[in-house]
Amino acid sequence: MPVQPTMKALMLTAIKEQKLVEVPIPTIAKPDWVLLKVRSVGVCGSDLHGYLGHTGRRIPPLIMGHEVCAEVVEVGESVRDIKPGDLVALLPMVDQGQHGDEKDRIVLGMNAPGAYAEYLTWPASHCYPLPDGLNPEAAALAEPLAICVHAVSHAPIRPYDSAFIVGAGPIGLLTLAVLRSTGVKTIFVSDMSDDRLARARLIGADVVINPARENPRARVNEYTRGRGVEIAFEAVGNSAACQQTLEVTRDRGTVIWIGNSERMVHVDMQMIVTRELRVLGSYGMSSQDFQRTLHMLADGLIPVGHIINRRASIDEGPGLFDELLAQPTVVKCVINFD
After folding, report:
1. Mind listing the pLDDT tens digit for each residue in 198-248?
2. Are 205 and 188 in contact (CB under 8 A)?
3. CATH 3.90.180.10 residue ranges in the chain?
4. What is the third-level CATH fold of 155-281?
5. CATH number of 6-144+285-336
6. pTM for this one?
7. What is the mean pLDDT of residues 86-115?
8. Residues 248/277, Cβ–Cβ less than 8 Å
9. What would the pLDDT profile of 77-90 be if each residue is shown by its tens digit?
């Protein structure tokens, strides 16, 4: 019997433990799927939370990784739109049911083997060819950028509005980049890290706030004549960040929560009720959001150089997450395979 070829993969073997292992290269199991060779994959904050065991959504043993650009190696017999050699970005969530419930979804790197590996298989319908001029490393930002495009699409933005973002990590900074193209007048960014706030300035934040030293609402009042912002985005996922969005938003304003780390948060509900705040959750993205982001990246509308500031190889994987957790100055790490 022939021996099945193997590949390197970074396996979450236990909470706070990842190992570089040799596993069989996957084979195409369905006629509309493809085999892909990973070129670049981003390290998502949700994977860091999964590594720490905070969310319960990533259960060992598991190959994580869902922010991926890959090269098509082989296609299933019914695939027509892409071919071997094509570079593609992967939409990492597949709805299998009619109602789009979470239990009906296949999610790359969560309940399906992910991209912290040399090869993976995925439906061809969720593989999007890169526009001309877009390199694999930048394309690895398509998934988190699409999350931000989706979140901003919920906001009733009008010219000359003001917006507030809590969190200057990858999602907060990419949300900032998207907002810069909408006609919003003033964008505030809040974070506990001065280094990340400096990056927010480079990307286009008008006002940066470190809540450890400043009162966010007082700073907002200086620029909004005491009214507060029209729209606030939460990109952290904890109680303090959620509460901060409520405090800086004007009466009957809109608050959009993107962060998804803590399951339960504690906020002032009376503030929501008595001030008639509109609080929305934003999760995932549509295929239209995803395709739009690829063109935004290809057209140079997103300052990739201010987002990606750590590059790694798969061989660095076993110690990489501990390094990233210990270095908050790293905004976005991308694992490159070439």
Report:
1. 999 999 999 999 999 999 999 999 999 999 999 999 999 999 999 999 999
2. yes
3. 6-144+285-336
4. Rossmann fold (3.40.50)
5. 3.90.180.10
6. 0.93
7. 85
8. no
9. 999 999 999 999 99
